[in-house]
C-alpha cells in the first residue's frame, strides 16, 4: 500500500491555574499561533473541518461526586473546544470526552476520509494529582506499540491504558460528518494542594488520508508509519 504523509494535526492542552483551593482545568483546541495551541493542515484538508471538541460540564453540588464535574450531554453543535474546572476536589471525577471529527463547513473544499491517531502527554508530570479514570465501553481506540519492526495493537478498555507518549489509533476511517468515539471519558482528581498547580495535559491528534476502501487491518501499519512510529 502506498504510504500517505502526515496531513493534519490538532493539538489541545489542558491548562491548570491556581485558585484559592485546588485549581482550574481547561481544555483548549482553537487554532492558534501560540506555543500552547498548534493546528497545522496539509494539502487537501480544510482548516475549519478538523475538530477536537467535548461536552459542556457543570460542577456537582450534591451526591457522591460532590465538587466533581458531570457532562451535560449537549447536542454536537453545542459542544465546546474548552471547559473550565474550578476548585478541584480530591477524590472526585471530571467528565471529559475529547472527540475528533470532520465537519463539512459548506465551502468548496471537503476534507478527505481519514484515519485518526492520538497521543496524550503530561500524565507522568501529574502522577498522584490527575489521572485518566474512564473510557467508553466498546470504543474503537487501540493502543499501539512498535518493537523489532512489528506493530502491536491492543484495544483500549480501561483508563489506565491512556499513558504518557503512547500512540492510539481509531479503528474506523472518518468521513465529513463523522466522528471518533471519545479517546477517554473521565479524569480523576487524585490529590490537590491549595496554591499548587497540576501540570499541563496535552492531547494531540493526526489525520491521515484513507486509501480507498482499505480496511483497518490493511491500513493501520502504514498510517502509524506515516505519523512517525517506525
Entry summary:
The chain has 230 residues and is mainly beta. Helices cover 5% and strands 36% of the residues.
Structural description of this entry:
The chain is mainly beta and 230 residues long. It has one domain (8-227). Helix content is 5%, strand content 36%. It contains 1 helix and 16 strands. It has one helix at residues 216-227; strands at residues 8-18, 23-28, 39-41, 50-53, 57-59, 69-71, 84-85, 93-95, 99-102, 114-121, 130-134, 141-147, 150-155, 166-170, 186-189, 201-209. Strands 1, 2, 3, 7, 10, 12, 13, 14 and 16 form a 9-stranded antiparallel β-sheet that branches. The chain is globular and about 50 Å long. The two termini are 16 Å apart. 37% of the residues are buried. Mean pLDDT is 80; it is low at 1-6 and 11-41.
